[in-house]
Structure prediction request, 357 residues.
Amino acid sequence: MSYHRAAREHHNRRPLPSHHPRRHPPRRKRPKRLSIRAYILIILIIIASLVLFFYNILGVDTETEEQLGYAATLNVSSLNTNFDNTQLIYRFYYTHMPLELARHIIIDPFNLAKLITFSPLENTLTIYTVSPVIIDITYDYENNNINITLYNPRELYSHIVIIDPGHGGHDPGAVVGPTTESEIVLSISLKLYNILGESDNNIKAYMTRHNDIFVSFEERADFANSIGDIFISLHANYFDGAGSHLVYGTEVLFNPENPHKTNTSNRFDIDNATLAQIFQDNLVYELQTRDRGILEHTGLAVLNLVNIPASFLEIEFMTNQASLANLTNPSFQLRAAEALYRSIITAFNYSYNDTSE
Ligand SMILES: [Zn+2]
Prediction:
């Protein structure tokens, strides 16, 4: 006891800088060493948590598909397949980082966001928008902000094509044996979507559905009208009357009333008949199918609702055995997609030529 008191008094009396550690008795040194270890431990814990924290933020950056879910990816736009007529939903899943850890700054110059919700329980941020948007996400490490910018695709792309795989969900379209029209046209659509995505022609493609879900005509049309320049609806034909084996070939339907001619917000102008002929020519040439020609049709719901240039493509007949074998053949599907790709390029070039004169 007395030694400790004496030591404390000794310590208190003497000014600190005059000490040399080696002159102190060993017992006085022990508590000091412990506090240095504690310091080091605390610093290590802080460093570890900082590393972990920044790693987690980076994780969102590098694993966008996984981290951000199906709705939006870094610098990439995609259509949420759950969209309905009035709202589009972009949902960000934070699987590593707690939602509260970063501040979200929403930059929305075009007022595209209708509602933004945070759900800490599900660790998600959800943005409901009035029209399809391109979401750009950047991390401001200095301020620990996640900047989420919403763009109108039309501000970023001069050419937007809407690919509409017909049917889907509870509407399979034509059915022959185990094969549905909805799966055939989805497969061709996805191939076209990938070709457009990989090419460097600055044509942005959107799909009205990416999987086997039901989308109404109104939803397809609203979506196309809100951002698109060209709309193509993909279908496979069906004829089960007498002599169905004699009925085959390619045809493209179009609305001769050209509803887009009265749409003042349209950026691209081409007669539906001209557009249909471009698709027809390319498909028949590439696929070597029977040319059934282009056909006027005023009774197709989706074509009546769409007010951008639009074509309704019947690639081939499912009711003809050889045609069905083609339709389900991946290399035939790919050639169909390539023919559609060339048609889209031609159509947009037609527009250039038309306006430059
Ligand atoms: Zn159909």
Notes: The longest helix spans residues 26-62. Residues 66-154 form one domain. The chain has a mean pLDDT of 79. The chain has two domains: 66-154, 157-356.
